[in-house]
Design goal:
With 194 residues, this protein is mainly alpha-helical. The protein has 6 helices and no strands.
Length: 194
């Protein structure tokens, strides 16, 4: 069965189905994270005092640079496909996957340090928000890694059958990835610096 608008753009939206779908999904994600940020603001403004210095700023900053680098490698993976360079695409997509794994490893060490000291989400409102926001973000990172692993593995067969559709799927994956990275750019200063 041939599904229309997988490569060509729809006349009503000017987008292919995949790109339209990912934009609608990201709109729902903005609402989810917007609600969580609103909760953070309400709780912080209403608190008589707010803890500072409980988080490892250097590890958070390292994770920020890791995610920025992963955004660059993701766009390079997509651009390589647009230039029909399969080898460079795989190299950049693998680099994105590895950088995201390093991010999660750093997060594991950060979480482990807190739990070792008995500081879980039950410890304070601040740590409850920290674990909720960063845990949800980590799940989004893991979701992106699963999609990348699929396109590095069995999903790569689509390149041979329909390269334009494969490029569109990598572009949609990239849009998701940029959203995840963009969310961290807000999360880092709000939790680690303010």
């Amino acid at each position: 069965m041939n599904i229309p608008y997988t490569v060509e753009t729809r006349p009503d939206t000017g987008l292919a189905n995949g790109k339209l779908g990912i934009w609608l999904f990201l709109a729902s994600e903005v609402m989810l994270f917007g609600a969580l940020f609103s909760t953070y603001i309400i709780l912080r403004v209403g608190a008589p005092e707010w803890p500072h210095g409980e988080l490892n700023v250097w590890l958070g900053m390292a994770n920020t640079f890791i995610l920025i680098a992963s955004s660059v490698t993701m766009v390079m993976a997509w651009a390589s496909l647009k230039m029909r360079d399969w080898g460079k695409h795989r190299l950049f997509l693998i680099a994105t996957f590895v950088l995201s794994a390093v991010f999660l490893i750093n997060k594991y060490f950060e979480y482990s340090d807190h739990f070792r000291r008995g500081e879980g989400p039950w410890h304070s409102t601040f740590l409850g928000l920290y674990f909720t926001l960063t845990g949800l973000h980590g799940l989004h990172i893991l979701g992106g890694m699963i999609v990348m692993a699929y396109f590095l593995g069995p999903g790569a067969k689509l390149w041979k059958r329909n390269p334009d559709q494969f490029v569109n799927r990598i572009e949609s994956t990239g849009l998701y990835w940029y959203f995840v990275d963009f969310f961290w750019i807000f999360l880092f200063p709000v939790l680690y610096l303010l």
